[in-house]
Amino acid sequence: MRKCAERGTGWIYLRITCCLMPLPSLEWVDQAYQVFEDMKQKYCEPDAYTYTILIRMSGRAGKTSKFLSFFDEMVSKGCALNLIAYNTLIEALGKNKMVDKLIFVLSKMIESDCQPNQFTYSITLDILATEGQLHRLNEVLDICDRYMNKSIYSYLVKSLSKSGHVSEAHNVFCQMWNSYETGDMDAFVSMLEVLCNSGKTLEAIDLLHMMPAKGVATDVSMYNMVFSALGKLKQVSFITSLFDKMKANGIAPDLFTYNIVISSYGRVGLVGKASGLFEEMNASSCKPDVITYNSLINCLGKNRDLDEAHMLFKEMQEKGYDPDVFTYSILIECFGKSNKVDMACSLFADMIAEGCIPNVVTYNILLDCLERHGKTAEAHKHYETMKQQGLTPDSITYSILERLETRSQRTVRIRKPARATSWVVSPLR
User: Fold this and answer.
1) Start-end of the PPR repeats (predicted)?
2) In total, how many domains does the chain have?
3) Is the pTM of this model over 0.85?
4) Enclosing domain of residue 179
């Protein structure tokens, strides 16, 4: 490096900076400091780029006093701080959990007319969340007020929503709502999603209705999001009114909409409404699929309308739809609970013959049916078949096996794979 002195300061600076850059990745931090001091004493004055490298390296190494002193030295020497320099310092402060200093530097960044970018906000959000200080987010937003725009608000809403900070996401969203006459599609969708996921369905419906006033067009996917949340909470009265409102607004329901609504009606036993929507689908260009049939078959079966459920199953096959493992499992369970064991076993045999492979849930349903009707030998046989297929019994399977045990005189052993120290007496081996 000493031989470089005669070739000009700029060339020397380039060589020394190139020496500094790989050092942080190799964790040769002390050697980097020595190179830096040698650079200042014998070659050339460092600039903002050099200091930025040192601040980043010191921050990652956890040398708090060092990166702060480099920053102070950088400022005292009159180096112009750009976005990269500020972000580097903010990142170092974040990694070292120095919230107060981070907010102070952010304020100085704004005072120097340096506009934060998404990376700046990302670091700030992370440290506030990690340190349990998200209540200071309003302080950050006030500091950055003149540079706030819909894009930044949208980013903050999405980030807070994804990390599960519902209240903070809603607070930022409300600030955006009050600040602009028009809304941002991404922010609205993120807020709608977080409201649905947190069970705030009434707020989600209100937001859906208010979107057009902010210039954001609603679509079927937004309605589907709300329908799904309402269905999980069995709030079918809201589903009905929202479904009618959606159609009145000129938004046509799609296959996903019908499947959600039919399934939701089925959960609360509204067979007539579910069947009515199914007929509406058949009369429209949006035809039912396997999921639709499964939902209605389940609805009919759970309401003891087994003949209709079985007829729908046959119709499904006649129209070229292949019943899946869920279709068969639903019907086997419904017939089994209605004491029609032979029909349940016949459906299971048909399932195998059609090449539809049963899963653990299907076997559990069948074993439960057989156990409740005293068909122990058949249960033994199907359990053996289940094991031969490589399926692992779950807690429900073992519960059924324990009940079967009381019906058999044979006592043999079966190991529970989840508990290496425990054996369960079973007649099944």
Assistant:
1) 47-81, 82-116, 184-218, 219-253, 254-288, 289-323, 324-358, 359-393
2) 1
3) no
4) 163-215
